[in-house]
Amino acid sequence: MTKFKSRLSTAAIAATALSLAMSSTALAAQNCEMTLHGINVAGAEFGKPGDPYGQGYIYPSEDTIDSLAKDKFNAIRLPFLWERLQPSLNGVFDPAEMARIQATVSDARDNNMVVILDPHNYARYRGQVIGSPDVPVDAFADFWKRLSAVFANDDDIIFGLMNEPHDIEAPEWLTAANAAIAAIRNIGAGNLILVPGTAWTGAHSWEQTFYGPSNASVMTGVVDPQDFFAFEVHQYSDADYSGKADDCSHIDGAVDAIKSFTDWLNANDYQGFLGEFGTSDQIECLRGLKQIVDIIQNDQKAWIGWAYWASGDWWPKNAPMIIQPDLRNGGSAQLRTLQPVLAGNDMTRHACNGEGD
């Protein structure tokens, strides 16, 4: 793919802002620093489809986004449910849900933050996998055609195709991903696209074959007419790499997985984005967290950035990995670990668009 950072204009940014002006020169790639230092802001993916707003799920408040901007996160990854936005396959979007997404985008824009739109559905719609008779690939493409039309060429909006596909083999997932990419580009949207693999898109599982052919061998088949995408992986450090346990027993394995994925990116001339990672506040966990961030920070040819998991309005106090909007409730140690990188962020106008290239 064409390098994300090679599309960044050093004349228009100071170290961390994204740029509308796209350059293909190697010099630009060398001079532009990694830009996406983000955080997942959870809540809109909570509950079940049909749950009332404000009871089953919530979008982030303006105060939450303001707080994260003050911490100098320059991007948010916004999880939400496909079924809430599009209650019927191939149908129109729910206007109230669309308005909530747009209000969150507006709050982020007020803070000069990039927004990564994240249908948090695991390659499913109402429990049925994409590519099954109940959820044809064309329906997934229709969803992205409609969503990309709303935000086409908005230079602070990135399209994350899908959160953590699983129990779908890589060739089938590639077909769905390519259909969605084609729909996005056919509508005229030049936005950056983040493409996950299957097997929960783990960095640790990228080259494994327990689901069939590996992501490493299959996802090189991504077709993007604008060649403006990056691969999204996730990486946790508990025993099964799920992020569900309050431990970092596999922190060394997590660090090694990020190193290995970095090697794969460089060997295949791709770029990556670490869309979810996080750990608890024990010293060995924080040390590993820093190592992961340092690997990404030190290879900005391979990486366009990261988004920590997570923050949001409805997490319980002192949840193990969560950076709370009110740090008295938890997350201060994790934030301190990230601050040396966040401190370099220039919280001015951000842009990210491949239109016309």
Automatic annotation (TrEMBL):
UniProt keyword 4Fe-4S, yes or no? no
Query: Mind listing the UniProt keywords for this protein, alphabetically?
Result: Glycosidase, Hydrolase, Signal
> Matching SUPFAM superfamilies, A to Z?
(Trans)glycosidases
Q: Does this UniProt record's set of keywords contain Metal-binding?
A: no
Q: Which residues form the signal peptide?
A: 1-28
Which superkingdom does the taxonomy of this entry point to? Bacteria
Q: Where is the Glycoside hydrolase family domain?
A: 37-311
What start-end ranges are recorded for coiled-coil regions in this protein? Answer: none
What is a single molecular function from GO for this protein? Answer: hydrolase activity, hydrolyzing O-glycosyl compounds
User: GO annotations under biological process?
Assistant: glucan catabolic process
Name the InterPro entries for this protein.
GH, Glyco_hydro_5, Glyco_hydro_5_CS
Family stated for the protein in its record? Belongs to the glycosyl hydrolase 5 (cellulase A) family.
Q: Write down what this protein is called.
A: Glycoside hydrolase family 5 protein
Species this protein is from: Martelella lutilitoris
